[in-house]
Amino acid sequence: IQNQTVIQQGDEYQKAAGTFNRTLRNFKSLLKPELAETCYSDLELDHSAIATIRNAKLKKLEHKRFKAADKDIMQKLDLHYNDTDSFTRITKQRMHWNIYVRYWLARCCGLRKSEIINSRHEWLVKQDDQWFINVTHTSLWQTDEARLEGWSSKSSNSRMVPIANWLAAKIRTEKKTDRPDEPILHIKGSCKEHSGFDAAYRREWRNALDKVGADVESFKKPTHHLRGEFVTSVAHLTGSVVTAQAYAGHSDPLTTSRHYFDPTRVKKNVVIDPLGQPLS
Hints:
With 280 residues, the chain is mostly helical. Helix content is 43%, strand content 6%. The protein is built from 11 helices and 5 strands; from the N terminus they run H-H-H-H-H-H-E-E-E-E-E-H-H-H-H-H. The protein has helices at residues 5-8, 17-30, 47-55, 71-82, 93-109, 113-117, 165-173, 194-212, 222-238, 241-248, 253-259, and strands spanning 124-127, 130-135, 141-142, 147-148, 159-162. The strands form 2 sheets. The chain has a 3-stranded antiparallel beta sheet. A two-stranded antiparallel sheet has the order 3-4. A hairpin with a 2-residue loop joins strand 1 (124-127) and strand 2. Helix 5 (93-109) packs parallel to helix 9 and helix 9 packs antiparallel against helix 10 (241-248). The chain is globular, with a radius of gyration of 22 Å. The model is unreliable at 1-14 (pLDDT under 50).
């Protein structure tokens, strides 16, 4: 431990208290009283950082239910993001494409923000006339003009997610090189450059919400909300939260049901007859 950034960065977990709590517990388990023994003096530990971690408190978990948007609102947002000419105050063609991809990969496939940024063309797989996006680990990709750092998924497990054929075709037309590991997003330089696109994406998101008459306070986190819409749609169409959990890449079904699923959208006209007899 060389500094206190692990605790200072705790603010990033305000909306994911469980992640912060797990991280804090792991650190505290490593910083047992034995570290004060003289045999550990050669480790040159930062004792102020140790004290900060020991005194840190677990964050309160807030289980906020996901609430899907009105179908009319989502339909208007889909129309807006299907027409890239409607994007305002954006002049770079690369930025147009990145905003388009970020919306639709979250909307149609439920990908996380980091997964979208690190997505590759080799992830697109066709099986029996159906396209899938294979969200998996990536290796370093680098040319003279572009570089993406090595990355591994949050859940550490690969998953196959169906992707609409029209979206897969659109992505394939934007491929610039022959390399299979070319990023789907148009990025020059380090992937850290994407922070500029992130700010533009959020500005465009707010503009789109104003345009369709949506409440901005209910849509603060674009990717999180679009993942929730995706999970809710999958659960509604398949009748299975477990299927939605697999497509979303959650290791715990409670994460899916608590934070990404609106139970009010479940089909209510399902006939349940355990005896297999027609209902009178």
